[in-house]
Amino acid sequence: MTTSAADKAAPLVALTDARMQFGAVRALDGVSLEIRAGECLGLVGHNGAGKSTLVNVVNAGLTPTGGSVSFPASGAPSARGAGVRSVFQELSLCPNLTVAENLKIAHEGLKGLRWRGAARAEIRESLDRVFPGHGIDADAEVDTLSIAQRQMVEIAIGFAPRGQAAQLVILDEPTSSLDGGIAQQLLTHVRRFCEAGGAVIFISHMLGEIFEVASRVIVMKDGKVVADRPAGEFTRKGLVDAMGHVAPEGTGAAAAERRIGVEVVRTPEGLTAREGEIVGLSGLAGHGQAEALARLYLDTASAWRRPGAARMVFVAGDRGRDGVLPLWSILRNVSVSILPEIARRGLLDRTREAAVAKDWKRRIGIRTDDVANPILSLSGGNQQKVLFARALASAAPVVVMDDPMRGVDVGTKQDVYAMIRAEAAKGRTFLWYSTETEEVRQCDRVFVFRDGAISAELTGADITEERILEASFEMQDAG
């Protein structure tokens, strides 16, 4: 569909003065927009800007407290009838079911004695279309898959026919768990899908992806649309400026001279790290990086009782499974790593606990009016900020980070990078697995993994995307 034809067509979705109020919090404040067939709408804004609330109104997950949402092109009374699909950053698959069985949950038309065969065929075909060469077994239980594979399955279910072709697919941070090659497959499919007349709302904090796939970009701040223009009219700087700043000025520490000290980590795989060093783990997703970090951390921290302060602290990328304590408040999720340090004779010092949480709320820009609120009241990116606050507030000399920036906005990323460098300058050691080249380049040394082993060790100017990809596909001598 050409742009002129798309302009004349009835919109797939139309929001008119949509508002969403949660108590005193105005999450959506008078948003009006239309989305048409053939468009890829890039939706950007800092964590807590209202992006997730907006898409939940579009997909009928939330009923707006004011204004309206309609589906003019189809005339359908509901988002489901209009072919609206959602793939969220927080994975919703049932871990104890197979890949094919998870498709069945989303596909009401799969019935009868032979539904399993039909489900297998449909999910395989969708996976093949979006992620050629994926290697995922339709009969595999989801809890046996890596987080990247689970994300791929969730995306494939979103684009699968399911008895009615998808018209609008909402992708919320869809590449946050994917390596560069797999992410590129998805971006290629998004362009193909929109060229064929579908529409996509693409939410990402990776601005390069927004510019690669979006035909139009909407910027949100404080529940409002503050910019809505064709993607070609934005520059990267202009987009960041439109988003504005969330963390207070000066929260990121200035770069400091660092002295690399003695070796403090050595693993059977040959992974090493020294005092004050930032060591990266890279390579294609699912090649043993996360497993190596998990073994290291559990070998150090799994004892039921160990004298003295913890030697390591962990920042999880899969926050739902490994990070967030969902029944606790924001304050308790931050302070759990420092309880021995703020206790006197076995009694918790509530004043110190509150002061630490308040300080980190300010330093890292956690969007909440009260740290006593439940952790699940926060957006996904703000929950991730809480995990960073938990780790950096502790006195542990070694920080292990498993793809920790999932869903964190671009402004906060820069502040966290600065905090990491400042902590390393004080002698703290960081082991950092990331699927993003920008983050890997923050490291002093990088170990590239392939098939569960280290295929290369890169330093300095050799830490480039080209060298990482080269080592990912062809085994080299480690070191």
From TrEMBL:
SMART domains from the UniProt entry: AAA (SM00382)
Family annotation (Pfam families): ABC_tran
Keywords: ATP-binding, Hydrolase, Nucleotide-binding, Repeat, Sugar transport, Transport
Gene3D superfamilies: P-loop containing nucleotide triphosphate hydrolases
UniProt xrefs under InterPro entries: AAA+_ATPase, ABC_carbohydrate_import_ATPase, ABC_transporter-like_ATP-bd, ABC_transporter-like_CS, P-loop_NTPase
UniProt xrefs under PROSITE patterns: ABC_TRANSPORTER_1, ABC_TRANSPORTER_2
This protein's record includes keyword ATP-binding: yes
Domain ABC transporter stretches: 13-247, 246-476
Enzyme Commission numbers on file: 3.6.3.17
Domain of life: Bacteria
The UniProt record lists the keyword ATP-binding: yes
Molecular function, one GO term: ATP binding
PANTHER family hit by this protein: CARBOHYDRATE TRANSPORT ATP-BINDING PROTEIN MG119-RELATED (PTHR43790), GALACTOFURANOSE TRANSPORTER ATP-BINDING PROTEIN YTFR (PTHR43790:SF9)
Protein name (Swiss-Prot/TrEMBL): Wenxma_16, whole genome shotgun sequence
Organism of origin: Wenxinia marina DSM 24838
